[in-house]
Description:
With 217 residues, the chain is of the alpha+beta class.
Amino acid sequence: MTSSPNEGEESKEGPVIRDKRRIDPETGKVREQAASASSAPEAPANGGATAADEEVASLRTQLAERLADLQRLKAEYDNYRKRVERDRVAVREQALGQVLTELLPVLDDIGRARDHDELNGGFKSVAESLEAVTGKLGLERYGEKGEPFDPTVHEALMHAYSSDVTETSVMDVLQPGYRIGERVLRPARVAVAEPGPDADAAESGGAPDDAQGDEGE
């Protein structure tokens, strides 16, 4: 059996070894073929990075919208809670004010009895207990002689002029006032005096004018 010339040549040459190293061992530089192969996948890599950036931007936008919705919802809830608390306090004060208003005549009787030294014995103990309870509920009595007149909390039943005052003042308290916090249950009924000459001075000053008028006639 004969062999072809090509087969003989291949047997003489032996196996073929191809050098696929990216860096040339003699020059230490990157071979052109390896450089071109490594740069080839850059296009899809850049495309993938762009898509990822767009997705991240979209997620950030959605997150900002959800955060804004959450903040708005929290603000609405806080306003609702404050409004409910304010209404609850107002209803409580209104109901309490109605009850205490019914007790004001009793407190007036206790005050008159104290002024006439008739508050003694068991009646005194009951009266003091009632005043203590109403005080704990926030009921405040006001109205003192000499304090400035305030039409928002005082009701003037009597009026006069006096040289002893420099502003409109309370000269006498005819009936004390009561309030709960800033809410007035009953204004203090008082007698007030304004700065000016007193009645006696006005009458004495008017006499000479009358006398002069008579002389003229």
